[in-house]
Amino acid sequence: MDKIVVTGNGPLNGQIPISGAKNTCLKLMTAALLSDEPLTLTNVPRLSDIKTLGALLESLGCEVALLNGGNVMALSAGTITSRKAEYDMVRKLRASFNVLGPILTREGEATVSLPGGCAIGARKVDLHLMALEKLGATLTLEEGYVHAKAPEGGLIGAVIEFPFVTVGGTENAITAATLANGTTVIKNAAREPDTVDLCKCLSAMGAKIDGAGTSTITIEGVDRLHGATHEVIADRIELGTFMIAPAIAGGEVELLGGRRDLVEAFCGKLEATGVQIEETDKSLIVRHDGSRLKPVDVETEPFPGFPTDLQAQMMAALCFADGVSVLHETIFENRFMHAPELIRMGAQVDVQGGHATVTGVEAMKGAQVMATDLRASVSLILAGLKAEGETVVGRVYHLDRGYERIEEKLGAVGAKIERMPE
Ligand code: EPZ
User: Is any ligand 1 atom within 6 A of the Cβ of residue 100?
Assistant: First the structure.
């Protein structure tokens, strides 16, 4: 496995293009299972998670072709040849669980492995299952698999109310409801841009969906969906990650394809640290003079709140702030794994349950570090941009799941960053 070596190298200047959103693209790919006509996705990020889900879809009978150097994906599920998503595939990628709604609603039954826990928390799927049961599915759990069966004649529209926001659960419910009989109303639905983009794609395929981007989504079931071409929305988490790079290292970086409405709450917090953000019609420009950031308190929340997927990166920035910041993680119970690694680089972080108190330091030192999830890994690279000497980030596998050509993108704005064999 490769490692990434970052050496603190002063301010960053230049442009970084933002790729299509990983988490959106994964759910868009599952939508292809809803129709026997082709779905073409453009602006597809070149990431290992995308390939992993592509392989799962192929195992279900969906043809998957990457075109244009991997930036365009042609999916065609003329016939579903298997209704079972195997453990070996699902365990690698939790988003795989989102094939359940589409196969169940189209085929009348589906068997999908339970994904199991992961580094950031237990990540249950009970709410996905609750939603499908509301739509009339009978569920049995056997040997680690969920077997779901629709009533004769298909799923039946219903009111589904989530007790708290679940992105994946909302998306499984939406896809299942598109081909159900009658109307489904989802209350306390996810408002994430990923979910909105999925609804946009499903609407282009002929689904009848109202209220995407609000807490109440209404879906009127249709008999069939047809093919479509859809452009994957910009990755707001990649955007936020690269916005933090000049906040830490100083300089001026233009994030091409960036939009403030995708990361509004995050922008507010970053500005409160003293960083300048300018929106243009094609980008966001981030400027910082390299002086010490002001401390700021952050609480993660479902969209439109501050995203949990930017908490680790924000912590990396606040490690260098002039004062004490408190980060409160409310979405996942174990999402501070970056803290001990940042401490190895000289940060002062005290984690107590869901709270992390960060006392900013003037300087940090490069070290050998590694992390067990994607966003934690990237936070170490960000800290390495200002730390003295070399920061060597191991387990690059995690980064490749979610960041396309990270060393090229950061290298292009002046970071000293290299991928090397371990
Ligand atoms: C999505 O995960 C993202 N993944 C995550 O991105 C992101 O952190 C998360 O949403 C929150 O924004 C994808 O879209 C592929 P949830 P998801 O269901 O859908 C609990 C990244 O780094 N819950 O909104 O799995 C759950 O345990 C990743 O790119 C239940 O209890 O998140 C969590 O505490 C990591 N029962 C909370 O809800 C359920 O049935 C929110 O989870 C479902 C969820």
Answer: no
Please give the span between the terminal C-alpha atoms of the chain, in angstroms, as a whole number: 6
- Summarised one tens digit per residue, pLDDT across range 307-356 is 999 999 999 999 999 999 999 999 999 999 999 999 999 999 999 999 99
Closest by alpha carbon to 383, among 2, 4, 1? 4
Q: 166 C-alpha vs ligand 1 centroid, how far in Å?
A: 6
State the distance from the centre of ligand 1 to the C-alpha of 168, rounded, in angstroms: 6
**pLDDT at residue number 75:** 98
Q: To test the ligand 1 pocket, which listed residue (123, 164, 330, 377) has its Cβ within 8 A of the most ligand atoms?
A: 123
Ligand 1 site, residue 94, Cβ cutoff 6 A: yes
Residue-wise pLDDT tens digits, 43-84: 999 999 999 999 999 999 999 999 999 999 999 999 999 999
Q: Is the beta carbon of 306 within 6 A of some atom in ligand 1?
A: no
Contact 385, 378 (CB under 8 A): no
Run of H or E residues at 64: strand 63-67
- The finding on whether 118 has its CB within 6 A of some atom of ligand 1 is no
Q: Which residues are catalytic?
A: 118
Provide the 10 A C-beta neighbour count for residue 270.
24
What domains are defined for the chain? Answer: 2-19+234-421 (3.65.10.10), 22-231 (3.65.10.10)
pLDDT at 141: 95
pLDDT over 70 (residue 117): no
Of residues 327, 326, 329, 250, the one with CA closest to residue 288: 250
For a substitution probing ligand 1, which of 331, 336, 338, 401 has the most ligand atoms within 8 Å of its CB?
331
Quote the percentage of the chain above a pLDDT of 90.
94
- Tokens coding 340: 């001990």
Question: By C-alpha distance, which of 57, 148, 160, 60 is closest to 108?
Answer: 148
